[in-house]
């Protein structure tokens, strides 16, 4: 399960970041922020190839000693980043994909809310609950 | 051991090359020998064989060879690898010793020299006692040798020399000292290389042969040692594939060793060495993925092998070194042509190395607190060894060679650890970390990772902060802050700002301190309210020129030093004014300014508003607010200052508005006034000017405005309930245009289009003043509007003089015709005559300018006003003239006969829409003679209506003198004409029509028909239906109008569609006066009207304004 989940706006500022409370929150902010380098690179590389049939899931962005960072970009260039612990080897690529899909669906619901102004921080409780379900449960 | 005990030994990192010693060369005093030596060492490029040469004395002492062990049965190894071993084989024990000796085959003293040479060989052999090192002899000869086999003396003497020296024939070489020295040298060194290869091969065999004597219980260390040695010899032999294989075996063997606390360091050191070799070879073999995989495996295996808990910092230091050296290997491989990618580049390894160094620092801080701060190194220093170094890699100085699980002497162990801890305390950790981070920054810059780079720079800044180098820390933090600000990562920005604030506090840097405070109080900061409150209190203290409280996370010693610095700063007078540019930050006071309109007429006061809003937790007061404008004379009107003791207060979360008015100068008409800056003065005792460039706004406001505009929430006047939205929706209007005063005169043009070609077309201009004062110096510019086809200005002439027909000398545009002053309510008329000599449309411009005095806000100003009218006039041909020749019986002729009279008939077909009055016509003959003595014009005073034709006949005769069968010129036909004014026939129409209609609202239209003739006129009127209107009123009517009387027709039109719509067509005909056709009359009637959509009340003003 994830230790950090982030939603990043098209202009690369955070719309939503949630990390496990036991660890240094700032470190995750930095991890997510630096992963955008790879996301941008991947988007620009894919943009040249096929704009329409681009795969939304970007896969493993980069491994660090302690964490694995995965990325996903919607068609409107909103980015999702999921950070999982490197020691957590049970997570398969497929599971990460389905986490992203869930996240995307939930984010779409947030966007459909007429009272949500696109570009504002996400404050939806439903979204929050869904993210909580995907995070590592701290006992 | 030096402080860099973690550095890899240089003999490990270099590329091993076969070592060949050259003796018998006197390179200092003998030029020939020098040349030979130079040829060996100069230009050692990649195409030369890899040998390292050294010149040694003939009687050089080589390292002694220990007596070979015959049995390993009772032997217990003391360590894995001796520290001197690699160096010994690289630099001390040669694979081949070459003896240089000057001897020609035909030397007269051959015998003596031969024995001298043999002696020298013997000396070398003796000093190499027990080694397998080869010996070779090179004879330096002055003569060029003959081809082999031809010189019998040579071959004989060669074999005798070989015998004397106990050499094989393959080890004797001849080096003729002639022109081709380098060529000979290259051949020589290839031969040397082969000998060296054989030497290393036998060495490998020798080491391998030990294996059978070993047993797994006591000789585990030897397995590793032997594999390492074989691999190293293979490398010396340049057999890198096998070397890699042996290193890999050695690597797996090293991890099979029984590891415990006492030998952990040795195992890790050796594992690190072997890993380094493997990775190096993998990169050399261009298999970088293997290198990376090996390194990952290495790290995973060793990560958990921490060893002694008291020396945990050693493990992190070692890990850091592993990453660093791998990064360096990777980087080196890239320099040799390997391509790295964004997600796999040396930067990550440097970064991880830095990360471990940080861990090292932390653990060192924890562990090295244990010895009391003043503890000195125990005497004697347990780290000292008799030899000054270690015998084996990775062992402890105080128990070298000890291989059992428990330390031999717990007391020695304790002091040893203490000594290491004390040594660790003095390590400049921050320097190491910063060096690694800056390496990583350089890499990430190269591989397009700007954010990673920023992150590492933050870490560097923080490290400088820990190292108390606050200036450098601030420089780095400042540099990256703006990246995080523009990307709107507020949490990260806040963290960086907090560090920067501490730095500036500890340095007592007033300006930076205030800047960071202001941003930390601002809306971008994610600090908690109580922290903000603390910071604001500190800021207020600084503004009062007092010493702020210490930042909570600073260490106490630093804080007290800082407090002293602040006191000094405070005492310093004179430097108490600061100007801070806040535009590029997110300051705690937001500022937005706007002109109330994008343009102002010069006779209106210019209005300008400045909005301020504080985001800090407590109210803040200020002393002065001033706006600077592009024209500085207005600045004096845009200042608000606190009077006396009371200051102006900004309440958090509320918007304060300050309005300014001023009157523009008349010379600024047509110019733009811009706000160039806004300045807010804060403080008492210390003055701080916050300045915004332009009209306010900051690093975050553009995005907020965008979000506000995207928002679905209602905005505008009704959004007062949400002050947030209202503030965000405030738009900045940073400039305004000063435009001239609206003229209060009406300019009416009356004329009768279309113009006829060549006629003097009259346009009457009437100017009526609606001004309240005297319009002075009214000037008219009339004529062809500039900017049209260039030919038109040649074909158009304008004059004011109707007395004569204007010609080419008259201009197309008459500028600045003075019309004098115009009193209020008065009217002036001016006729302008235009002659167009070509057909087609033209646009004419009538520009009326005047000046008038007026007062704005009690100020008298003299403004210039002007009004432009343009009209488009079409010019058409008035008539066409054709002529034909007929006989007197009116039969058409195509040639005429001399002396026989004939008739010239001219036809004049009017195409003018106006009746034409033909004034006169005459025929000016050239060769022909007329039969009538005084021909009178038959067309004089004829009025020609549209489409009518006037004909004239002239009876002519060709004189006999004319040339037969030739063509003769007839002459010129001159017609003089003018527009026929029909003063009495056309009735006058007037209509009153509103300027616009509105969908589904009645539009009353009244037509006035006035008979200005002296006759009773019968008028038939009919209205054609239109799609856009319903209407009521008389649809078709016939009526009589008495002379001078007027008839009114009222219609109620009801518009159905918006936009420009054609009105229902009113057709009027005068049966008594068929000449006036309905088209002529239509010109007076309005054709179209603008119909507005049925709007809401709100829109009224905006459309009217448009």
From TrEMBL, chain A:
Compartments (UniProt record): Cytoplasm, Perinuclear region
Main localisation: cytoplasm
Any one of the GO BP annotations: endoplasmic reticulum to Golgi vesicle-mediated transport
GO cellular component: perinuclear region of cytoplasm
Keywords: ER-Golgi transport, Transport
Pfam families given in the database record: Sedlin_N
Matches recorded under InterPro entries: Longin-like_dom_sf (IPR011012), Sedlin (IPR006722), TRAPPC2L (IPR044760)
Similarity comment text for this entry: Belongs to the TRAPP small subunits family. Sedlin subfamily.
The protein's name in its UniProt record: Trafficking protein particle complex subunit 2-like protein
Automatic annotation (TrEMBL), chain B:
Keyword Cytoplasm belongs to the record: no
Residues annotated as domain Trafficking protein particle complex subunit 11 C-terminal: 1016-1068
A GO BP annotation: vesicle-mediated transport
Location within or outside the cell: Golgi apparatus, cis-Golgi network
Keyword Isomerase: no
Main location: Golgi
GO cellular component assignments: Golgi apparatus
Similarity remark: Belongs to the TRAPPC11 family.
Chain's role: Involved in endoplasmic reticulum to Golgi apparatus trafficking at a very early stage.
Name this polypeptide is given: Trafficking protein particle complex subunit 11
UniProt source species: Gadus morhua
Phylogenetic classification of the source organism: Eukaryota, Metazoa, Chordata, Craniata, Vertebrata
